Amino acid sequence: MIASPSFADLERAIGRPITRHVARGRGMRLYVREGAVNVSVPRDLSDAEVVSFVRGQINWLRKHLTKHDTGHSKGAAEFQLALSADDRVPIFGVSKTIELASSGAPFVENAHSLTLLARPGVNQLSTARKQLINALAATHTLALGQDIRAMSEALGVSARRVTIKPMRTLWGSLGPQNTMSVNFALVFAPRACTTYIAAHELAHVLERNHGPHFWAHVRRAYPDFESVHRYLRKQHSFLMRLQDSVLNSPGLIKGGA
Amino acid sequence: MWFKSVSAYRLPVDFSFALESFNEGLEKAALKPIGPLEPSRKGFVSPFGNDSEVLLHQASDCVLLELGGLDRVLPGSVVKEAMEVKIKAIFERTGRKPGKKQREQIKDEVLMDLLPRAFVKPSRQAAYIDLERKMLIVDAATDKPAEAIITQLREGLGSFVAEPVQTEESVSAIMSAWLMAGKCDGPFELGDECELKDPVDAGCAVKAKHHDLSAEEIREHVRMGKKVSQLALIYDNRLSFVLDEKFKLRKLKFLDIILDEIKDTAGEDAAAELDTRFTLMALEFRRLIGSLDEVFKLM
Fold first, then answer.
1. Average pLDDT across chain A, whole number
2. Is residue A192 part of a domain?
3. What is the CATH number of the domain that holds A182?
4. Are residues A70 and A137 in the same domain?
5. Which single residue of A32, A56, A92, B234 could bond B189 by disulfide (Cβ 3.0 to 4.6 Å)?
């Protein structure tokens, strides 16, 4: 009798450990994050079933691990604050140069650049990063406020409270008390994405599902939503990596899932 | 009657106020005496004090109301000690400790025994509806007491929609810019108190009280990336308050110029004095909220 392969065999085959996570969903998910292999599986699945699933994806896994190891991975940081003339950050889809100032307001944004108050010294990098986060939060708050106001008028409903926070898997959510949360990462995407998410979440005040009635409300508030919806689906992982690299720590990401 | 804090709630554009039906609603949700086994009770009381039965007061297009609360004071440690005495007696009698279900029963018995003997702590929470601005202004710096008033209004009136006022502009960003510039926009001036928070580590904060906010050491924190989460402001030399990043106003103080204006009313009866103070306060708040609206763009 030939023994079926175990996790240890698979780990030997790919040359690195596999971390198993228990997920609430019914599906299995295999992913590579920062060079580590992760598999997320439902609670009651047997080891044999998980091993069989990973074995079936071994070629895909090898391809992605090679990409990561050679530096061509999609998992590479999308943003590097180097305090140089090349520093750029996309704000609502417009790539802006980051400039540093040693006096004045904490941050000043104009059409092509974002000036951050960070004087030369040992803390310049961390200060610039904090000013950048403050600037992005302020810009996002302003844009989202305008979008929510416009979409509230279009739909005739309002949200109780709006919070912008880093999220991993959702662009926005609406709580049972109509409290809205919106993903911080949207500040990097074109402005239309924030407008669409505002319309989407406010439409949930009227319909707590994704049925035809719900989409009719979204269309009423934001007719051209399909292209934005597609863009967000396609760019999700890019925007998430961008968010991680701007905030400089995936550990900062809380909630949302 | 001076509000010490302000939480502002936006009422629907089509909000209409009919004195008679509103009064009926308040009467329906009026505070009734607390039962011997009730831990707490809420309901509307007269803003004119316990001797009056009038549940609202209208002046200058503003309607003043007050939510009364009766809470039995029963400290957890007292309940715990009474339970331990009973559990010990059971252990000595039967030789075994009571299980989870029996402990819950014991707790119920202890509460039944202690609640009727507990002190009843009365409380009052004032609020008013600004009919001109279509806003509910609650004398609270947190959402919980404000939500209690809205819930009670909903109970009495059948329906009452109020959403917290939000700002289009980032309050924190504007306050940071003011602190760095050493001056504010519009009729605002810097006060002498602030709280600065790190945008990455929210637990990392600096508080300054009775401090010159134009001092270099304060600005230095903002230069190093901290954002302003609370800032003391003076409005038109008439009011001082601390504004927080969630657009709550706390530590509201009416300055001498206003207090002088009401000196003349001293000696009037209590109802007339309340009317004068409320009118003055509501009109000042209306102006203040208008000025805050211009800066922060309320929605």
1. 84
2. yes
3. 3.30.2010.10
4. no
5. B234
Task: Identify whether residues A37 and A143 lie together within a single domain.
Answer: no
Please identify, among A74, A94, A113, the residue that sits at the C-terminal boundary of a domain: A74
Q: Which long-range contacts (CB under 8 A, 24 or more apart) does A16-20 make?
A: A16/A65, A18/A54, A20/A50
Domain count of the fold of chain A: 2
E strand segments, B146-245: 163-164, 188-197, 205-209, 227-235, 239-244
Residues A134 and A243 in one domain: yes
C-alpha to C-alpha distance for A165 and A89, rounded to whole angstroms? 18
Tokens 């302000």, located at residue: B6
Give the Cα separation of B170 and A42 in Å (integer). 41
Domain boundary among A74, A93, A119: A74
Q: Where are the alpha helices (DSSP H) in A156-252?
A: 191-206, 212-221, 225-247
Residues A210-252 have pLDDT tens digits of 999 999 999 999 998 999 999 999 999 889 888 888 886 543 3
**A142 and A223 assigned to the same domain:** yes
A159 and A226: one domain?
yes
Within-domain flag for A29:
yes
Chain B residue numbers touching A244 (CB-CB < 8 A): none
Residue A12 lies in a domain: yes
Percent of residues in chain B assigned helix, strand, coil, to nearest 5: 40, 30, 35
Residue with tokens 């986060």: A133
Domain that residue A48 falls in:
7-74
**Same-domain check for residues A207 and A141:** yes
Render pLDDT for A75-118 as a digit per residue (tens, 0 to 9). 555 677 777 777 888 999 899 999 888 888 888 888 889 998 88
Q: Work out the minimum CA distance from B178 to partner chain A, whole angstroms.
A: 9
Whether complex ipTM tops 0.90: no
User: Per the structure block, which two tokens stand in for B183?
Assistant: 């001056």
Question: Is the residue at A100 inside a domain?
Answer: no
From A136's Cα to the closest Cα of chain B, the distance in A is 10
Interface of B with A in 162-221 (CB under 8 A): 163-164, 166-170, 172-173, 176-177, 180-181, 198-200
User: Using CA atoms, how far apart are residues A189 and A192, in angstroms rounded to an integer?
Assistant: 8
Choose the mutation target among B175, B248, B299 for the interface with A, i.e. most A CBs under 10 Å: B299
Mutate to test the interface with A, among B216, B224, B293 (most CBs of A within 10 A): B224
